[in-house]
Amino acid sequence: xxxxxxxxxxxxxxxxxxxxxxxxxxxxxxxxxxxxxxxxxxxxxxxxxxxxxxxxxxxxxxxxxxxxxxxxxxxxxxxxxxxxxxxxxxxxxxxxxxxxxxxxxxxxxxxxxxxxxxxxxxxxxxxxxxxxxxxxxxxxxxxxxxxxxxxxxxxxxxxxxxxxxxxxxxxxxxxxxxxxxxxxxxxxxxxxxxxxxxxxxxxxxxxxxxxxxxxxxxxxxxxxxxxxxxxxxxxxxxxxxxxxxxxxxxxxxxxxxxxxxxxxxxxxxxxxxxxxxxxxxxxxxxxxxxxxxxxxxxxxxxxxxxxxxxxxxxxxxxxxxxxxxxxxxxxxxxxxxxxxxxxxxxxxxxxxxxxxxxxxxxxxxxxxxxxxxxxxxxxxxxxxxxxxxxxxxxxxxxxxxxxxxxxxxxxxxxxxxxxxxxxxxxxxxxxxxxxxxxxxxxxxxxxxxxxxxxxxxxxxxxxxxxxxxxxxxxxxxxxxxxxxxxxxxxxxxxxxxxxxxxxxxxxxxxxxxxxxxxxxxxxxxxxxxxxxxxxxxxxxxxxxxxxxxxxxxxxxxxxxxxxxxxxxxxxxxxxxxxxxxxxxxxxxxxxxxxxxxxxxxxxxxxxxxxxxxxxxxxxxxxxxxxxxxxxxxxxxxxxxxxxxxxxxxxxxxxxxxxxxxxxxxxxxxxxxxxxxxxxxxxxxxxxxxxxxxxxxxxxxxxxxxxxxxxxxxxxxxxxxxxxxxxxxxxxxxxxxxxxxxxxxxxxxxxxxxxxxxxxxxxxxxxxxxxxxxxxxxxxxxxxxxxxxxxxxxxxxxxxxxxxxxxxxxxxxxxxxxxxxxxxxxxxxxxxxxxxxxxxxxxxxxxxxxxxxxxxxxxxxxxxxxxxxxxxxxxxxxxxxxxxxxxxxxxxxxxxxxxxxxxxxxxxxxxxxxxxxxxxxxxxxxxxxxxxxxxxxxxxxxxxxxxxxxxxxxxxxxxxxxxxxxxxxxxxxxxxxxxxxxxxxxxxxxxxxxxxxxxxxxxxxxxxxxxxxxxxxxxxxxxxxxxxxxxxxxxxxxxxxxxxxxxxxxxxxxxxxxxxxxxxxxxxxxxxxxxxxxxxxxxxxxxxxxxxxxxxxxxxxxxxxxxxxxxxxxx
Length: 1114
Hints:
Layout: H1 10-23, E1 44-46, H2 49-52, E2 80-83, E3 92-95, E4 103-109, E5 112-115, H3 117-120, E6 129-135, E7 144-149, E8 161-165, E9 171-173, H4 175-178, E10 186-192, E11 201-206, E12 232-236, E13 241-243, E14 258-264, E15 273-278, E16 285-289, E17 295-297, H5 299-302, E18 306-307, E19 313-316, E20 325-328, H6 336-341, H7 348-359, E21 362-363, E22 367-371, E23 377-379, H8 381-384, E24 392-398, E25 407-412, H9 421-429, H10 432-437, H11 444-449, E26 456-457, E27 459-465, E28 468-471, H12 473-476, E29 481-482, E30 484-490, E31 499-504, E32 510-514, E33 522-529, E34 541-546, E35 549-554, E36 558-559, E37 563-564, E38 569-574, E39 578-585, E40 591-598, E41 601-606, E42 625-627, H13 629-632, E43 633-634, E44 664-667, E45 676-679, E46 688-693, E47 696-700, H14 703-707, E48 713-719, E49 728-733, E50 748-752, E51 758-760, E52 772-778, E53 787-792, E54 806-811, E55 814-817, H15 821-824, E56 828-835, E57 844-852, E58 855-860, E59 863-869, E60 875-876, E61 879-883, E62 892-896, E63 912-917, E64 926-931, E65 940-941, ...
Parallel strand pairs: 18-21, 33-41, 43-47
Antiparallel strand pairs: 1-32, 2-3, 3-4, 4-5, 6-7, 7-8, 8-9, 10-11, 11-12, 12-13, 14-15, 15-16, 16-17, 19-20, 20-22, 22-23, 24-25, 25-27, 26-29, 27-28, 30-31, 31-32, 33-38, 34-35, 34-39, 36-37, 39-40, 42-75, 44-45, 45-46, 46-47, 48-49, 49-50, 50-51, 52-53, 53-54, 54-55, 56-57, 57-58, 57-60, ...
C-alpha cells in the first residue's frame, strides 16, 4: 500500500497558480469527440469489471495540503503495462496508482483476470507511482516490472522499483542491486539497446519539479543538471546499470519537464534514436544516435516546431512508406466552448522571444511529424486532422481493424479544468495570489471545488490513407467520457487483433475487446526469440511485403504515456491471405527473410536463424537539379525583412500582411541577350539587381534603388515604356505599415539607359498610391505598347475593406485609367496573370485574391469586359501561373492557396466567413472572422475574448465572462442593424489547385495532398524531368501568423511530375534535388551559362539557385 504524507510548499503553490492561470502555456481541450462518420462496425466492446475481474480505479482526492494546487502533476494519472509474465501465452495487466497500490492481474483467458498483486509482491511501497514498463532485465526469458515513482510528498522515498520475476508468479524488488533505484521525479522508463552491444539499456524520463515561474526563461538553463528532475541514461554493463547521462550527451536539466519518451530508428542507420516530450516552455528533444555511445540533440535542425505542453507520444510509419513518423500530444481544444472558456495563447512577440532564447518554435497543438526518409520532418497534424484533442495524454498508433493502416488512439481528460479562465479572474479579483505570496491561510479545497470538472471522450482516429485521419471514437465504441491517462494495446484473447486498456482517474479502468474479426480482415502475429541478452528481440525491425505494398514496424514496448505494450507485433493484412516476404532485422543488424507466409497465424522468428548481411550502400539516383547557389550567386543579395508586428496594430489579423515579399522580376536589362534579375526589397532595404556575368548572377548596385530604400517594393515589371529599345522598370509599393505615409505607397518608374543603369523618373509613372500585390503588363489594345494592371492587396490598418485596383492603358507614354468598375473594387488581390483563355488572340485578365473568387475578365477586340467567376472558387488564393498542362492547346492554370495543413477547414456547406464594419462606431474599421471548429455544427467568431475586447472594448460590457463569450455567435454579438451594414466575405476552397480549361469552360482540381502541407507562394512551370511535359514546382511556408492560428513551415519545395491525363505525382526533394527551407515567396526559371536554372527568393533569407540537369527549357 502506498504511504500518503501530505506536504505543502507555499512558493510552489504560488508558482503553479501563476503559471497555469496567468502564463497561458497550458491549453485546454475539447468536450466533444467530433462528428461521427458512417461505419458498419463497432469494433471495441467495453467490458464490465464484473466479467473481467479488474476492479482497479486510480482514485485521487484533493487534500487540504496536498492537491492539484500544491502539486501540479496531481491529475496526471497512472500507466498500464501489458505482457505475459508467466509465459502461458496470455498477456497480463499491471496498473500503477497514485494514491493507492499498484495492481497486477493475471490473464485467465476469455477476458477474465485474477488480481495476484499481494501474493506476487508487486503492489509497490512508494507514495506515488507513475509509469510502468515490462522488460526482461536479467535476460532469463521472463518479463520483469519496472515502476517509476514521483510525487511531491515531503520525506517520501521516491526511488523507482524493479520487480524481478522469480518464475513462480512472485517477484523480488531489486532496483538498487541493478542501479536503477533513481530517487527523482520519474515519469517513465524506456528500455532499448542504444549501443547495440546486445543488452537493454534504460532511458529514464524525469519531470523537474522546479517552479516554472521561478526559472529565468531567457537565461540558458539547459546545461544545468538537476539530480531529481533531470532525465537519465543508464548503460547496461551486465550485472548493473551505469549512469552515462553526461558522457552520452543527454540533457539532465532543471528545465526538463519530461512527460513522454519514444524510441525508434528515425534515419535508417540501424541505431535507435530518442524523442522526448517536454511540458511547459522547454522544447522537446530529438536525440540522434551517433553510433559511438553518444547522442546528438538535433530537434531544431530536423523539426520546425513542436508542441508547447508536450505530453505523451508515439512513433510509427503512418503512410506505409517505410519511414517512421512522430506524434506528440498537447492540450488544444477542438470545440468552440472550451477554446473560448478555457484557453490562452501566447502573443506573437512572446513566441518570437522564446525562439530567440533557444526554446525553438512551439505551438499549442498536437504535432504529427512526417518523416521525409532521411530523419527530417514536416509537421502535418492539421492536414491529417489530429491536431486538436483537448487535454491529451497517451498517443498510440495501431491498426484498429487489421486493414493494414495504422490508426491513432489518444487518451484524454483532466479531473479539473485548470484553465477555466473565469476561475483565473476569480483568483485575481479575490486577491488569492497576494494571500499565497504572503503565506496567509488559503482554503484550497474550497478553491478546487469551484473548478469545473468535465469528463472528456477519448479520440480514435481511423487512418483513411493519403495522410488523412477521421475521429470515429463513437462509432468504434471508444467514446465513453472519462479522465483517461495511460493506455496500452495488446492481443489479450489471442484472436489476432489489438485490444485496448486504459488507466482512468477516479473511475474503473477500461478494458476493450477489439472485435475486428467482423471485418474478415487477415493478420499476422510475430513473436521474437531474441539473442542471449535480449530474449524478446526489443529493437528488431520487421518489413512486411504484399505485392507492392509494404509495412514496417519496430519492436519497442514503452509507448504512449507512462505505459508499455506487449513485446510482439501484429500486422493487419486486409484482404491478403498471404505475405510475400517478411524481413526481420535484429538490433545487431543480422537479418532473416521468410517468404510466402500464410496469414492468420502466430509465428516466432528466431535470432539464431539470422545471418550477417553485407552492408549495402543506399542507391541515390541522379537528381533533376543541383544546388549552385554558393558559386553562381555573387554579392550581398540576402533579403532582409524589416521588423514590424502587424498584430500590434490590427489585433484580429490572422496573419501578417507585411512579410509577403520578395518577388522576382526577370528581363534583359543590359541588352546582352541574357536575362537578368531584380529581387525586390523590404522597407529600409533596397531592391537588388543581379546581372549575368561569366555564367553567374552578380549583384550590381543601383544608386536609385539605394535612394529609394524606404519604399517596400512589392511587385513590378520590366517594359520598354519609352520605346528606346531597352527595358525600363516600373515598381509598385506596399506593405502594411500605414504610418509610413502615402508617399511611400506610390508607383515608381526607373528609366534604363540600355546598360542596366536606372534613373528615377517617378513623375512618369501612374500617379496613384496603394498597397499593391501585383503589377503585370500586356498590350491589351494591340497598339504596340504595354498596358498594365495593378492589383490592390489591402488597405493598411483597414483589412477587409476592398482596396483600389487599376487598369492603365499606355497611350504614347501617357497613362490612362481605364479600370472597369467591377475591377476597381474587386477585392484584396494577391496575384493576376494575362492569358488567352478563349483562344481569340487577345489575352484575358485572370485575377485571384484573399477571400476572393477566381475572376476572368475577357478581352474582346482590345477591351476588357466584366468578369466570369469560376463557380465554387472562393478562397485565400496567393499565386497564379498559366500553362497548357494537358496538351489540349488551351491555357490552364496553377493556383497557390493556403492548403489544408491549417487549423481552418472550409467547404461550401461550412465556409469561413468575414464581416467588415465599424462595429463600435469609432471611425476605424474592424472585421470578425467566423469559422467552424472540427466538432461544432454552427460557426463562431475565431477571435479570443482577450483579442476581440481589445479591438472592440465595448464588448466587455456585453461579455463579462469568458464563459459568456464562449456561447456568443456573430449574430448574438451584434444586432441586425449593424450586421446589415457589414461587408460579407466567404472562403470555402483552401486547396492549392489546377484550374483546367476545356474550351473556355473551367473546373478546379485540387493538387495532390503533398501540395497542401503549406501555403504556396511560388509557382514555376517547366519540363523539369525531361519528358517533354510541363511539370510544376511549388514553394511556400509562412511564419507571420498569430500563435492561435499556428505555424506554416512544412514545405521544403515540391516538384510535381506530370504523369499525363492531368495527373501530377509528388517527387521527393531528395530525388528532385531541390530542398528549400524557409519562407519561399517567388521562383523563376532562367537560362544561365547555357543551362537552365530555378531561382528561388525567400523572405528574410538568401535566394537559392538550382541548375537543371539534362533537360531543356520548354
